[in-house]
Design brief:
- With 402 residues, this protein is of the alpha+beta class.
- It has one domain: Anthranilate synthase (4-Layer Sandwich), CATH 3.60.120.10.
- Helices cover 28% and strands 31% of the residues.
- It has nine helices and 18 strands.
- The strands form two sheets. Strands 1, 2, 3, 9, 10, 11, 12, 13, 15 and 16 form a ten-stranded antiparallel sheet that branches. Strands 4, 5, 6, 7, 8, 14, 17 and 18 form an eight-stranded antiparallel sheet that branches.
- A hairpin with a 2-residue loop joins β12 and β13.
- α1 runs antiparallel to α7 and α3 packs across α9.
């Protein structure tokens, strides 16, 4: 655990996904909490207690409003890695992250102030080199053939009855020279990036262009919007996605999983699916999205809610614990900051995106992850191609080609 004192974030707080427009130019970092797998304590409880200690009403999210915000605090950014989410529920953690500088849980509380602070952030922030931006060749964590073999292994596990669906994710890294923040900001500008933003720490930065809502809470109503199903953003691609039995079956399985996840914290009988298999665009792709809602049970706190929803079902599979075991056995490197959560907690609610389409910059490399859901009908070559298609717009933006 790493509590950090008051530090300036002028020019960076505005990048946080979900931060209110009225806060962006006057939000400064008040306090920070960091946790890594292996640190003591339950991360979900520690997050709730840390936020409550700063006057943010994280202990009960079921009421009509999140009242009780301390006057000088405007809200907090919350990040949870894939491994952090698995740790919250006691699931398999998988391989170590290829970007170990990034903690597994980060909470940054912001205050409003007009006072100019000139001191450096704790640890000095992300190192940058002088000169033109250069990005080296991508180094994948597995080859296309190894990725295809993992898909086939999942199909065999499904045939045995071990799982119904597993999300397989690959990773690639590339060395960089220059300041990575403009490249991360280009990623956040990708079309369809609802959770567009950057979070920074000591020696690392996360750039997110996610379209997917992991968790939104307003007035005691919880919402998750799983995305499953991908096709090229053409008229033919849209028609193929709508007509595909495989894509629809994959999607419905995850919607059912998300319904079950929310049921653990919902008033009985309130879980609903107001929208099913809506096709929306992200960059050069069509993706299928549904909406699952529930009324939270009285006195449901943030810790209980995080344990119910993390890690996101659309990037694990079903059943969730069994899918996490398959992921740990098959993926050669950890998911790091991808497939986790990043967003904003404020006086009026919670809005967390699932960190798909997400990049990490450490002191040396940029890291990108991409994958897809595997069902019994999955074609290994097609799954490899789908992961490449999801990563392509992100890589192009990092190179400055978009």
């Amino acid at each position: 655990m790493k509590p950090v004192g008051l530090a300036p974030t002028h020019g960076t707080a505005r990048d946080i996904p979900g931060i209110p427009a009225t806060c962006r130019d006057q939000a400064w970092e008040r306090s920070r909490f960091e946790w890594r797998v292996g640190d003591p304590g339950d991360p979900a409880t520690l997050v709730e207690n840390f936020l409550s200690g700063h006057g943010l009403p994280a202990g009960d999210l079921s009421g009509p409003s999140l009242a009780g915000l301390a006057h000088e605090v405007c809200g907090a950014a919350l990040f949870v890695s894939a491994a952090g989410g698995a740790a919250m529920i006691g699931g398999c953690l998988g391989a170590p992250s290829p970007a170990p500088a990034v903690p597994d849980v980060v909470v940054v509380v912001y205050e409003h102030t007009a006072t100019v602070r000139l001191q450096e952030p704790p640890g000095g922030g992300l190192a940058r080199t002088v000169g033109a931006w250069r990005l080296g060749p991508w180094r994948p964590s597995w080859s296309p053939s190894r990725h295809a073999e993992a898909v086939q292994s999942v199909r065999e596990a499904i045939a045995r009855g071990d799982v119904y669906q597993v999300n397989m994710v690959g990773h690639a890294a590339a060395a960089y020279h220059g300041d990575p923040l403009p490249a991360l900001r280009r990623v956040t500008g990708l079309p369809g990036a609802r959770y567009a933003g950057i979070l920074q720490g000591d020696g690392w930065a996360i750039g997110c262009a996610s379209p997917e809502t992991l968790l939104e809470v307003r007035g005691g109503q919880a919402v998750t919007r799983p995305i499953k199903g991908t096709a090229p953003a053409t008229e033919a691609g849209r028609a193929d996605l709508l007509a595909s039995p495989k894509e629809r079956a994959e999607h419905i399985m995850i919607v059912d999983l998300q319904r079950n996840d929310l049921s653990h914290v919902a008033v009985t009988g309130t879980v609903r699916v107001p929208e099913l298999f809506a096709v929306r665009r992200w960059a050069d792709l069509w993706q299928a999205e549904s909406e699952v809602t529930a009324r939270l049970r009285p006195r449901t706190g943030l810790a209980e809610l995080l344990r119910a929803i993390c890690p996101g079902g659309s990037v694990t599979g079903a059943p969730k614990f069994a899918a996490l075991r398959e992921i740990a056995a098959l993926e050669p490197v950890g998911r790091g900051a991808s497939m986790g959560a990043l967003g904003w907690i404020g006086p009026d609610g919670i809005d967390l995106g699932l960190t798909i389409r997400t990049v990490v910059a450490d002191g040396r490399d940029l890291h990108v992850w991409a994958g897809g859901g595997i069902t019994i009908d999955s074609d290994p070559a097609a799954e490899v191609a789908e992961a490449a298609a999801k990563a392509a717009p992100v890589r192009a933006a990092l190179h400055g080609l978009r």
